[in-house]
Design brief:
Length: 340
């Protein structure tokens, strides 16, 4: 650290023999790596990757950090891990990391309350910063219909693609039957974790009026932003989890979100979040109608452009506050460790 607003962030070390760009499993959590590099770092800040190790292995990590007098800062993103079905190993790891961390961060007050209730630790609440760097963001292409989209990605464990698609198909059919000009797009990666579910999704979408299935390679960041910007509403298809990076990107792009009542996603940007239930098309219809009420929800419109610009200014200011909050917390953790 060189001054009050500067942090020297070291790159994630590559595992031995790893392909370019691969960081998993995170080497920073290995006691041997910490022993070898203790003189090069002041503290460790963990966001993700703990699922690579067991609770016992993470306990060894915490013990090593304490012996080396290196503070651990832990951002609690996931009280439930979206990459896992069984949550018991994750909860055991959480207990170790939350108890062993010098400082805790989480993204919303409601998550902080759950952490304190279940683990007895207070957290600093620091909201998620913007996910985009460019000022020129896509504004979406105009359309004569209301476009609702859901990206099911590779059907990871917390995405129920079949139930989401079935609910969307029924909701679109009902809205169109009542005269609404609405269409839906369901996107799925080429490579998925559940081929049977993908086949069911294809069957549901293929015969549905007003619903289109896209099956293609994973989008890069720019292409994904452009895809979301074309939507009037973006659906989140989650069955469990805590927070959502997609909700943050949708906020940047001024695209309203319809999401399931999962974790604390609705607390990230409450005014933009409209709840629905899987298997409950009426709730999804209501969410779509409510989400598309503001004029800024319309892609390609002047109102959307103005809202994106307003949020861009807000998010730049927020990002500076997030940086300052992290630096203050890092310095506090270093002072606390030095006094111990």
């Amino acid at each position: 650290m060189t001054d009050e607003l500067s942090v020297d962030l070291r790159p994630d070390p590559s595992p031995p023999g790893a392909a370019p760009g691969q960081w998993w499993p995170p080497q920073v959590l290995l006691p041997a790596w910490l022993e070898a590099h203790a003189g090069e770092i002041d503290l460790v800040h963990l966001h993700f990757g703990s699922e690579s190790y067991s609770a016992d292995e993470l306990a060894a990590t915490v013990d090593t950090l304490q012996r080396l007098e290196l503070p651990l800062v832990y951002t609690v993103h996931d009280l439930e891990n979206p990459q896992l079905s069984a949550q018991e190993p994750h909860r055991a790891a959480l207990a170790v990391l939350i108890a062993g961390a010098n400082e805790l961060i989480t993204l919303t007050p409601s998550t902080a309350a759950e952490v304190e209730r279940d683990y007895g630790r207070a957290s600093d609440v620091i909201a998620h910063p913007t996910l985009v760097e460019d000022d020129a963001l896509p504004l979406g292409r105009p359309s004569t219909t209301t476009r609702v989209g859901v990206h099911l990605r590779d059907l990871r464990p917390n995405i129920d693609g079949v139930a989401t698609t079935a609910t969307l198909v029924r909701a679109v059919a009902d809205l169109r039957a009542h005269g609404a000009a609405v269409e839906a797009v369901v996107r799925l990666n080429e490579n998925v974790r559940d081929a049977d579910a993908a086949a069911s999704i294809d069957a549901l979408a293929r015969t549905a009026d007003g619903v289109r299935l896209e099956r293609a390679a994973r989008l890069d960041d720019d292409a994904l932003a452009a895809w979301i910007a074309d939507l009037d509403v973006c659906l989140l298809p989650y069955t469990h989890g805590t927070h959502s990076g997609w909700a943050e990107l949708c906020y940047d792009l001024a695209v309203p979100v319809a999401g399931t009542r999962v974790g604390h996603v609705g607390s990230q940007h409450p005014a933009d979040f409209h709840t629905y239930g899987l298997g409950d098309p009426v709730s999804l219809e209501r969410a779509i109608v409510d989400a598309t009420a503001p004029a800024w929800s319309v892609p390609g419109s002047a109102a959307r452009a103005a809202e994106v610009a307003r949020r861009r200014t807000e998010r730049r200011e927020d990002r500076e506050r997030v940086r300052q909050a992290h630096v203050a917390l890092y310095r506090r953790s270093l002072r606390t460790e030095s006094a111990a």
